[in-house]
TrEMBL record:
InterPro entries: PDZ, PDZ_6, PDZ_sf, Pept_S1C_Do, Peptidase_S1_PA, Peptidase_S1C. It holds the Pfam family PDZ_2. It catalyses: Acts on substrates that are at least partially unfolded. The cleavage site P1 residue is normally between a pair of hydrophobic residues, such as Val-|-Val. This is Probable periplasmic serine endoprotease DegP-like. The active site is at H122, D152, S226. Residues 386-398 have a biased composition (Polar residues). GO terms for molecular function: serine-type endopeptidase activity. Residues 1-29 form the signal peptide. GO terms for cellular component: periplasmic space. Its EC number is 3.4.21.107. Residues 270-361, 389-485 form the PDZ domain.
Length: 500
């Protein structure tokens, strides 16, 4: 790959980070196997289908020292001569950045005799020239067919003079923890390198994208392995090596691979359409915590809570509402919130899908005609239709001891204090007891309470009544929809203050 890079926004700890330059994935066959006597036969058969990928792009040079000598300084002439010798100053634009061509290395694997090659998106991202070196050292220019940043997959095409050796996709869903796997790649630009290990874990979410479902392996993966294949013991590709968990940038035995169950379908769509096509439901979701499950009457915390519904989207047309919990989608149980986006994305566009919801303490079934996800829909933050609400007649404030909150009806003074817009309605939180569960859950002054127990609230009396009703019913928590600085979210707030 081009370079090892660290993204501070994706740190897993102060010392350890996800590094997108190589990973190992581990997969299995349908049954447990003993350790192989040797990987030699399989390596000999598979090595010719693994390629080295080289990319290059023009990048701006650093523009000299960030200082100038004062007029009349004895160093002024020397500095001017230095700049002119380097192509800046006299006869040219001192501010015009110079450029040089930067190169980088990665790995890939051939999936068809006519030259289709799979790699990571981050291996070729930003490149204006891509070349592929085959196992016999022949180098061919490569064309980018398409890529998908969300799953970090890219598809290339070369024009070979003869049929190329290629590998087949395997079924990563059958890979079991503890099974053997083998990785081949181009670590540090050394060329075809074989490493082996086991599948250490499945379904890892490393916060790299919305569809994270990585295979974790302890096979040695290093810089330049990115985009290379992870094989099961049948010699089928069950993963694309993509990232490692490391304090130093080198392999410490924790690598991650994109499972073939995700990568294969993305590659096929890129091949057919030039881009991936994903199903779209049109909801904004959040995790169902234990407190939220308790407040809505679920026996266990699973599913995905609908925090918002996109206007005129498939979900709204099907009758899905803000506050619903999606339990099953197209016959598949939604074990956790992060599982739903992948299920939806993999579902055929236009399909009529049965969705099981939890609403008002009981299950409800609806049918959704799935739409197609567009790039501009990914960043939407539509919180659903807002109900017409009456402006409170008088401004007042009250303390809700059970929640550790002080709340108030919105008036001009509060709009100014918390920088609220003229059309903001609801009940504003003016203070939060730092010893309360509400503070622990993240409720902050300036947040706006929109709903309590699935009922819209427009003044503090309605909030107080909802809290009292929940207490009278013997509930431990109350569900509230609160507009935070990050958007609307449901909170399962405990009806008791923490001990100080």
């Amino acid at each position: 790959m081009r370079k090892a890079f660290y993204n501070p926004a994706r740190k897993l700890s102060a010392a350890l980070v996800i590094v997108l330059f190589g990973v190992t994935s581990i997969a299995q066959s349908a049954y447990a196997r003993s350790a192989p006597d040797s990987f030699a036969d399989m390596a000999e058969r598979l090595l010719p289908a693994v390629v080295n990928i080289s990319t290059s792009q023009l990048v701006a040079d650093r523009q000299g020292p960030d200082f100038q000598f004062p007029p009349g300084s004895p160093f002024e002439d020397l500095f001017r001569d230095f700049m002119e010798r380097n192509g800046q100053g006299k006869g040219g634009d001192q501010n015009a950045p110079k450029k040089h061509r930067a190169t980088a290395l990665g790995s890939g694997f051939i999936i068809s005799a006519d030259g289709y090659i799979v790699t990571n998106n981050h291996v070729i991202d930003g490149a204006d020239e891509i070349s592929v070196t085959l196992h016999d050292n022949e180098t061919l220019p490569a064309k980018l067919i398409g890529r998908d940043a969300k799953t970090d997959v890219a598809l290339l095409k070369v024009e070979p003079k003869k049929d190329l050796p290629f590998v087949k996709w395997g079924d990563s869903d059958k890979a079991r923890v503890g099974e053997w796997a083998m990785a081949i790649g181009n670590p540090f630009g050394l060329g075809g390198t074989v490493t082996a290990g086991i599948i250490s874990a499945r379904n890892r979410d490393i916060n790299q994208g919305p569809y994270d479902d990585f295979i974790q392996t302890d096979a040695s993966i290093n810089r330049g392995n990115s985009g290379g294949p992870l094989f099961n013991m049948d010699g089928d590709v069950i993963g694309i090596n993509s990232a490692i968990y490391s304090p130093s940038g080198g392999s410490v035995g924790i690598g991650f691979a994109i499972p073939s169950a995700i990568a294969e379908s993305v590659v096929e769509q890129i091949k057919e359409y030039g881009r991936p096509r994903r199903g779209w439901l049109g909801v904004h979701i959040q995790t169902v915590t234990d407190d939220i499950a308790d407040s809505v009457g679920l026996d266990e915390a699973y599913g995905a809570m609908v925090a918002g519904v996109t206007k005129d989207g498939p979900a709204e047309k099907a009758g899905i509402q803000q506050g619903d919990v999606i339990l099953r989608f197209d016959g598949k149980k939604v074990e956790s919130m992060r599982r739903l986006p992948r299920i939806v994305a993999e579902t055929k566009i236009g399909k009529s899908v049965d969705v099981e919801l939890w609403r008002d303490g009981k299950k409800k079934d609806v049918t959704v005609d799935l739409g197609e996800l567009k790039e501009d829909q990914v960043a939407e933050n539509d919180s659903g239709d807002q109900q017409e609400q009456a402006t409170p007649e008088a401004s007042s404030e009250a303390t809700i001891d059970a929640l550790g909150l002080k709340v108030a009806n919105i008036d001009d003074e509060l709009r100014q204090r918390f920088n609220l817009t003229a059309d903001t309605e609801g009940v504003v939180v003016t203070d939060v007891d730092t010893a309360s569960f509400s503070a622990e859950k993240g409720v902050r002054p300036g947040d706006i309470i929109l709903e309590a127990s699935h009922q819209s609230v427009t003044n503090i009396d309605e909030v107080q009544k909802a809290v009292k009703s929940a207490q009278d019913d013997g509930k431990r928590t109350i569900l509230m929809l609160i507009e935070t600085s990050a958007g609307p979210r449901y909170f399962g707030l405990t009806l008791d203050k923490k001990d100080k």
